[in-house]
Amino acid sequence: MKWIPKPDEFFVGYLPQAPKQTSLFLRKIVIALGVGTTILALVLAKSNQTFSSNTFEYGVSTTLEGTLQIFPVPTLRIDMGKDSDNRSVYQTILLVGFGKAGAVETLKKIENDLHLSLQNKSVKISGSLIYGDGKALLQIADDTNIQLISEEITLEGSTVRELEKATIQGEIVDPKCYFGVMNPGEGKVHRSCAIRCISGGIPPVFYAEKNSEYFLLVGENFEPLNQKILNIVGDQVSLAGRVFQFDDWKMIQIENKELNRLSKSASNNRMLAEMESGVTLCRIN
Predict the structure, then answer these.
(1) Tell me, what DSSP letter sits at residue 154?
(2) How far is 163 from 182, CA to CA, in rounded Å?
């Protein structure tokens, strides 16, 4: 072949020029290596996940004022003013506890100390903000400062409005990690951490990647269903249920029979994977 140097070509390293065939051969090798390296870099860059821009303001205390709700999900409802149609606009901040814990127990303790219910009361509350992709959470601790502004119920109108029944494809994530505390905070690599967070009381969130939508998950009576979904956390699943608008969030109400179907399907899939691979996987009882 012409591009391979002739056996009788002789080249000494200190000469200013290499023989013609040797020079052509080396030039092609360098070009091929350059093109190959560029292609490999592009493939690796495309296959890797981009870094999340979500933020956790660790160690920074922020005080927010709004209407506190413990049911159906611990939230702080903040009045953002009026829209172009002169309708009130609210932002709903999810409340979570310190570490891998929800906020319910902390709020109940504060209620006991104050000897009153905080449901739908106007308060000031301090904590560390977690936010990204248009959603926000506030991490509170056992010594969180909550100042009661009014003992009157301040909630205006219903915060939950039914939209439709739907079947949605996506993944159950724990919002605390997903929106800023961990990176990555989703997928198989984060499954065990998400299970511990959700089992600790952090409200589960369903992320539908196709439309980049986030849904709070509640049971058929709007009760927490944390312990009932641990088998399907971190998996791509299809959820069927009634969809509600919850201020700037959406919410899916899932019936027990649907949860049982999903849990059984997930258990069967993992058992099949174990049989095929011979590897024992993490199983939640």
Answers:
(1) -
(2) 32
Query: What tokens were used for 67?
Result: 């209407």
What is the pLDDT, as a whole number, of residue 283?
Answer: 54
pLDDT at 95: 96
Strand 75-82 to strand 88-96: parallel, antiparallel, or no bridges (unpaired)?
antiparallel
Rounded-to-integer distance, Cα 125 and Cα 138, Å: 9
Report the distance separating Cα 83 and Cα 239, nearest Å: 32
Contacts of 13 (CB under 8 A, 6+ apart): none
In the DSSP assignment, the letter for residue 222 is S
Cα–Cα distances in angstroms (integers) from residue 77 to residues 14, 104, 121, 124, 141, in the given order: 77, 16, 10, 11, 19
Q: How far apart are CA 234 and CA 187, in angstroms?
A: 5
Q: Count other C-beta atoms under 10 Å from residue 167's C-beta.
A: 9
* pTM across the whole model: 0.74
Q: Could you tell me which residues are beta bridge partners of residue 69?
A: 75
Q: Which ranges in 51-166 belong to alpha helices (H)?
A: 104-114
Q: Which residue ranges in the chain fall short of pLDDT 70?
A: 1-16, 45-52, 154-159, 184-185, 268-271, 273-285
Q: Bridge-partner residues for 52, per DSSP?
A: none
| Residue 244 to residue 72: CA distance in whole angstroms | 12
Q: How many secondary structure helices (H) and strands (E) does the chain include?
A: 5, 12
